[in-house]
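Translate structure to sequence.
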């Protein structure tokens, strides 16, 4: 539902349905563009870049799980 509202230009409604997705979408797009640039350059990723990607994936998963837990608590709109 959030994606549908974003594609139709209704950011407020998209934020209502999934605030975490809307808030993290710009970062996800930037990361994807960076990764695509690295892939097209045919240079291998450095060890530092691989470490950062692993850290970013873990932090993203932890944040998504935390948001999911908090969102499913009783009284979510009041938090």
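Result:
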């Amino acid at each position: 539902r959030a994606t549908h509202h974003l594609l139709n230009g209704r950011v407020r409604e998209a934020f209502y349905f999934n605030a975490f997705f809307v808030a993290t979408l710009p970062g996800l797009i930037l990361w994807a563009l960076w990764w695509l640039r690295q892939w097209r350059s045919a240079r291998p990723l450095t060890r530092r870049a691989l470490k950062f990607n692993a850290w970013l994936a873990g932090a993203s998963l932890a944040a998504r799980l935390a948001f999911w837990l908090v969102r499913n608590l009783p009284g979510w709109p009041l938090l």
